[in-house]
Amino acid sequence: MKIILTGASGLLGSAFARAASLRSHEVIGVVNEFKGPVAGLARQISLDLSDLSALEAFTLETFPDAIVNCAAVSSPGQCDKDPGLSKRMNVDLPEKLALLSKHLFARYIHISSDQVFDGKHPPYHISSPTSPTSLYGIQKVEAEKRVLELAVEFASIVRIPLLSGNSPRGDRSLHEQLFRALSENYRPPLFVDEFRQPCPTENVASVLVELCERNDFRGLLHWAGSQRLTRFQIGEQLLDHFGLPPSSIEQATLANNPAFSVWPPDLTLDMAPLEGQLKTRPKALKEHLDTLIIPMQYREWYHSQ
Ligand SMILES: NC(=O)c1ccc[n+]([C@@H]2O[C@H](COP(=O)([O-])OP(=O)(O)OC[C@H]3O[C@@H](n4cnc5c(N)ncnc54)[C@H](OP(=O)(O)O)[C@@H]3O)[C@@H](O)[C@H]2O)c1
Fold first, then answer.
1. Beta bridge pairs of residue 251
2. How far is the CA of 170 from the centre of ligand 1 (A)?
3. Closest atom, ligand 1, to C-alpha of 34
4. Which of 168, 197, 292, 304 has a beta carbon 3.0–4.6 Å from 224's, enabling a disulfide?
5. What spacing in Å lies between the alpha carbon of 45 and ligand 1's midpoint?
6. pTM of whole model > 0.70?
């Protein structure tokens, strides 16, 4: 298949490029500011995807069989800092890609987030009412609605949880952010009452490749890690794996932190109807710790410990 991949330089997009190329798909990856090569791409192009007319020209010229949208302003903090840009990337872009996929009769895989829920009534099913507590979550809900309205017969919208993996810049995933904090002599407070299902990027990527290749799972879908952990337990597993002292992180509680009153406490996703229907099986964080790489920028610090 010829696949357009947006966000090819991101944490998830880069994993998708590798997974799809292993299945012999021709992946044309779009990056924005990233300058390095991304493994697995047949072609890499730089394009500002907030410019929808440039996106349209590129997509029509490429004429893909599938579009996988991993581009986003992907953190709640960034969305709050620039609501205009985040709306263009998180709402207008998915809407345009939905229209283009319909026009081209192409499969469309759009990535959404567990943050469409408030975390107060887990587990969340695909039919659970959305209840976002951040601008990022609100934009994700809006994108889901528009994609469903415009291209339900072509689109799969996959809500995913916190991801673990190696990002091209070494700054995006759980262990990379932990390394950053520790190398700056910061002891991060991690919540013992905040529950997530961390999922390896390779595992989500392989689900997305399967969804490109089949047409029977459309609409809203959930995928997550097989184990529910607290944010503190995630930190403990990462420290243990890299041989760093458990005292490097601090135990904190959401309940005692008014500044985090809108932070979703438990985003457990129910994976029906996907789980059990794909070749890919959900994985736990501990099953992929060996694949995690210490980012280049923290190696000197790490070896001095
Ligand atoms: N990471 C998580 O834990 C997580 C959890 C749940 C859901 N998600 C969702 O999963 C998807 C992928 O997230 P991610 O963590 O892989 O994201 P990421 O690492 O932050 O990567 C974002 C990607 O979007 C691209 N991008 C941003 N602005 C752009 C623009 N104006 N034009 C073109 N490209 C642009 C970036 O390109 P450059 O690098 O070239 O700038 C990068 O490739 C997103 O929809 C996110 O909301 C992520």
1. 190
2. 14
3. 40
4. 197
5. 16
6. yes
DSSP state letters, 86-137: HHIIIIIHHHHHHHHHHHHT-EEEEEEEGGGS-SSSPSBPTTSPP---SHHH
Give the C-alpha separation, 112 to 220, whole Å: 9
Tally of CB atoms within 10 A around 63 = 10
β-bridge mates for residue 31, sequence order? 46
Residue 247 CA to chain centroid, in angstroms? 29
In a 10 Å sphere around its CB, with 0-12 CB exposed, 13-18 middle and 19+ buried, how is residue 211 labelled? buried
- Report the separation in Å between the CA atom of 109 and the middle of ligand 1, taken as the mean of its atom positions: 14
Q: What digits encode the pLDDT tens for the residues 205-247?
A: 999 999 999 989 999 999 999 999 999 999 999 999 999 999 9
Q: Where are the alpha helices (DSSP H) in the chain?
A: 11-22, 52-62, 76-81, 83-87, 93-104, 135-151, 174-183, 201-213, 231-241, 296-303
Measure the CA–CA gap between 112 and 44, rounded to whole angstroms.
24
